[in-house]
Write a structure and sequence with these properties.
four-stranded mixed β-sheet; alpha/beta
């Protein structure tokens, strides 16, 4: 039955419309009210325990909504799934199911496609984003998720850490050096493509990733880089409207106005340079509109 729905939706929508669903991308280590606060959180007068996951739960539609937890990115999927089941139960959600896709064969099972159809929201856990793209890419389960996000205004898809990094089109999956300023250090592939022309990086300030996302944007200046700090998230509506929540900062790296770069002239292994790269720092409550092609004036 689910396979038929994929086919019907595909035939009835020849052009990609503005997504009706919402997307919640989290920078990792979102507060669950259980661990000791970081120094920044303890000094932040606006800090709110469980803020991000509460927002996710409050965004669910329906009288008795079901959350499907996707622990595919993790090498300990049972443990991480149980952690989120416990958390969502604590926040009042009684129906939490595990979309336990561990192989590509699993992603073709009708029971998991049915789970996606019944879910009010999807939660991708952390782990390794390359596991997500390699296992889910091109499968019926992912196709259904993307179609529900596109056409169902009641649907919300969320991801934390690797689950957030995988949501974008260019996806950073590895950095050979911590700095990321050497050409070739940053490895990029295609993500799950919930967000177009956006590259998301997580644990951003904590792990000093400003340069590596900058290299990603310098090589893909038509994309916008979004750096999410821990316990910080963006909620995206209408595919381009961003609102920040959580206790940290969101870093926006905009390369649309780049005037000079040597990235295409230097050899692999050499430091790159760039001029007129624009950076925004956004905190909770701030909004940002992702630029679309017809807004560019370069």
């Amino acid at each position: 039955m689910a396979k038929k729905k994929v086919s019907e939706r595909h035939k009835s929508h020849k052009e990609a419309p503005v997504p009706k669903g919402r997307l919640l991308a989290i920078g990792g280590r979102e507060d669950k009210g259980e661990k000791e606060l970081s120094e920044e959180q303890s000094k932040n007068v606006d800090f709110e325990s469980d803020e991000i996951l509460k927002y996710f739960v409050e965004s669910l539609k329906g009288a008795d909504p079901m959350i499907a937890v996707v622990p595919t990115a993790s090498t300990v999927p049972d443990k991480i799934a149980q952690d989120y089941i416990k958390e969502f139960n604590k926040l009042g959600v009684k129906r939490v199911e595990v979309l336990d896709v561990r192989t590509r064969k699993d992603a073709f099972k009708e029971e998991y496609q049915d789970m996606v159809e019944r879910a009010a929201g999807i939660m991708f856990t952390g782990g390794d984003q390359l596991r997500l793209t390699s296992i889910l890419g091109g499968t019926p389960v992912l196709q259904l998720m993307k179609e529900r996000y596109t056409y169902d205004e009641k649907f919300i898809v969320a991801g934390t850490s690797a689950g957030a990094a995988a949501m974008s089109t260019p996806m950073i999956y590895e950095g050979e050096t911590q700095g990321g300023y050497i050409k070739g250090d940053v490895r990029i592939t295609t993500g799950l493509e919930f967000l177009k022309n956006v590259a998301i990086d997580t644990h951003f300030i904590q792990r000093g990733r400003i340069i590596r996302v900058s290299q990603c944007i310098v090589t893909n200046p038509g994309c916008i880089g979004i750096g999410l700090e821990e316990d910080t998230a963006i909620c995206v509506s209408n595919g381009i409207e961003i609102r920040v929540l959580g206790s940290g900062l969101v870093t926006v790296v905009d390369g649309l106005g780049i005037t000079e770069t040597n990235i295409y002239e230097i050899n692999t292994g050499e430091p790159f340079s760039v001029r007129d790269l624009k950076v925004h720092l956004l905190s909770a409550g701030d909004t940002y509109i992702l630029p679309t092609y017809d807004q560019l004036h370069i």
